[in-house]
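ok trying this again, last paste got cut off
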Amino acid sequence: MAKKIWYLDSNPVSVLLAQKLCEILKIGFEEVKEEKIFEILSQCNLGKSILIMDLNSDPYHHLDSYPELHKRTEVYIISSSLRQSDGDTASSDPRVSGYLTLPLTINDLTRIASP
């Protein structure tokens, strides 16, 4: 798999899990700090980059602040929330490629990183 995962989450356990899963699958991984999110865009290539943002990082604000974000990378929202409305909101937003629930799994990463 040649894609790279950019991961924005303030929970260090979630970040570590995502990083380890990416290592197992041999997928590139980069943790993104919220204050640096727009700097990563110059490194994103459509078709090769995936941005996963935690729901608590206010992903819709980032999408609104940088309208080209979803055109440069696939955007996924991840959350531990099991509320149907969170998934529905993500699914109805054309800028969002999908909604994932924590904990992230190998199957999740395989599905979204497959060509």
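PB: full thing came through this time. The longest strand covers residues 49-54.
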